[in-house]
């Protein structure tokens, strides 16, 4: 590779987007990713190698050979492994810096209130090494708002990623935890989370236990049930949280499928199926802090459908960027590989935003209700049991093709 190729327009734009060569050099030295050259001339070349090894798909041996042939670096594959391991903290810091800058730039977005969806996904590597991707997705702007990569010891929590005051935070059945709910509410946000009948310790406002079979029967008769409840935590000085419990009747086909799944799970575990589990299979259970006068049941249902947006985002990360094809066994090298993927995903999100791939408005045809209707029409496995809306056509999310950015890294 000659100097003209190293200064290609695409690569120069990526470097400038990350703050420029001087800023990259400073951050690399602070994180001890680049103390002296030793065969790699600059931090920008180290970043190029990290992107080629991660989303570029090169093995360490082939990457070292290509880097030497094209004049990027003159190091062995073992030396390159050590340099990339030392760059793990730096790459993670670059991701954090980009996310912090994104948080300032997107603000509350085009909607009256930002709608942020959180979810997690396991990323399995060789052997028994497994990592967890925590993602926060802005549904109104159709882009990643926050992210983190941790070990599986750090579980999914509603407040794992930064909570913005005024936002509406959505989560699936893995997120109804008392402390997570409390911390999100303490940061002046509202929550809308799906749960099962035994996810939380719920009582009526006067402290009485909830009769789930009775509530399910009422929801079946009425089609939907909306009542105030308190979230409590056993054996703790936890201050009860006043929230709304919403129970929706599923369509018959979805209910039949859910009942069969519950029976199979009980049979597999050699347990008798709890009647409340069978009854809950016919319903969708939501808990929220949103006020009933501002967010009736119909709007809550539409809002929760937006959760499929983050499923698509994770699918893009896995199917296009292949973030789940982790080849590295060493923890530090794995972190470098994963954060290189995340960094590229953030670059592509920013480019897609600049191109205006999506610009939904609160009241227009791409507002939250229309987005929810469109996503339900895609029959997501987690949401096909919600009441069917009228489908709405929406332009696909552009900018998640990694070829241009990788060509710039490889150039």
Describe it.
- It is built from 16 helices and 9 strands.
- By secondary structure, it is an alpha+beta fold.
- The protein has a 9-stranded mixed beta sheet, with helices on both faces.
- The longest helix is centred in the C-terminal third of the chain and has 25 residues, at 331-355.
- The protein is elongated and about 75 Å long.
- The protein starts with a helix and ends with a helix.
Kindly list the characteristics that best describe this protein.
16 helices, nine-stranded mixed β-sheet, elongated, alpha+beta, 411 residues
Question: What's the topology here?
Answer:
Blueprint: H1 3-6, H2 9-17, H3 21-30, H4 43-53, H5 60-69, H6 77-86, H7 88-106, E1 115-124, E2 130-138, E3 143-151, E4 168-171, H8 178-186, E5 190-195, E6 201-203, H9 212-222, E7 224-232, E8 241-249, H10 252-268, H11 275-280, E9 283-288, H12 297-305, H13 308-319, H14 331-355, H15 368-377, H16 403-410
Helix pairs in contact: 2-16, 5-6, 6-14, 7-14, 12-15
Overall residue-averaged pLDDT value: 83
Shape: elongated
Distance between the amino and carboxyl termini: 8 Å
Residue runs with pLDDT of under 50 for 5 or more positions: 1-7, 358-369, 371-384, 387-401
Secondary-structure element series: HHHHHHHEEEEHEEHEEHHEHHHHH
Structural class by secondary-structure content: alpha+beta
Largest sheet: 9 strands, mixed
- In angstroms, what is the radius of gyration? 24 Å
Largest sheet: spatial strand order:
3-2-1-4-5-9-8-7-6
Helix content estimate? 40-55%
DSSP summary: helix tally: 16
Strand content: 15-25%
Using DSSP, what is the number of strands?
9
């Amino acid at each position: 590779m000659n100097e003209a190729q190293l200064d290609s327009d695409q690569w120069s734009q990526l470097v400038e987007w990350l703050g420029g060569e001087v800023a990259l050099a400073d951050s690399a030295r602070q994180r001890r990713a680049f103390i002296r050259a030793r065969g790699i001339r600059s931090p920008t070349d180290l970043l190029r190698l990290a992107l080629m090894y991660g989303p570029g798909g090169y093995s360490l041996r082939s990457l070292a050979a290509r880097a030497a042939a094209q004049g990027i670096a003159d190091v062995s594959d073992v030396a390159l492994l050590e340099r990339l391991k030392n760059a793990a903290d730096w790459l993670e810091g670059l991701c954090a810096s980009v996310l912090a800058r994104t948080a300032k730039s997107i603000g509350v977005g085009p909607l009256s209130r930002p709608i942020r969806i959180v979810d997690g996904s396991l990323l399995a590597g060789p052997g028994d090494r497994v990592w967890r991707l925590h993602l926060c997705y802005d549904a109104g702007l159709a882009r990643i708002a926050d992210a983190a990569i941790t070990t599986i010891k750090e579980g999914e929590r509603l407040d794992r990623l930064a909570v913005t005051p005024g936002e509406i935070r959505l989560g699936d059945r893995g997120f109804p935890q008392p402390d997570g709910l409390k911390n999100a509410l303490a940061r002046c946000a509202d929550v809308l989370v799906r749960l099962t009948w035994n996810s939380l310790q719920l009582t009526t406002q006067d402290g009485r236990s909830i009769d789930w079979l009775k509530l399910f029967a009422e929801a079946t008769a009425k089609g939907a049930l909306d009542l105030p409840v308190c979230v409590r935590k056993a054996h703790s000085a936890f201050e009860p949280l006043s929230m709304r419990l919403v129970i929706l009747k599923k369509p018959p086909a979805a209910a039949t499928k859910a009942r069969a799944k519950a029976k199979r799970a009980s049979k597999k575990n050699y347990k008798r199926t709890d009647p409340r589990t069978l009854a809950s299979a016919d319903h969708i259970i939501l808990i929220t802090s949103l006020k009933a006068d501002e967010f009736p049941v119909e709007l809550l249902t539409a809002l929760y459908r937006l959760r499929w947006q983050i499923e698509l985002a994770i699918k893009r990360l896995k199917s296009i960027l292949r973030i789940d094809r982790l080849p590295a066994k060493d923890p530090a090298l794995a972190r470098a590989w994963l954060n290189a993927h995340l960094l590229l995903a953030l670059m592509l999100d920013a480019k897609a935003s600049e191109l205006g791939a999506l610009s939904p408005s609160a009241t227009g045809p791409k507002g939250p209700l229309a987005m929810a209707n469109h996503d339900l029409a895609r029959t997501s496995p987690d949401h096909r049991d919600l009441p069917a809306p009228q489908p709405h056509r929406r332009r696909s999310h552009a900018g998640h093709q990694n070829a241009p950015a990788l060509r710039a890294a490889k150039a």
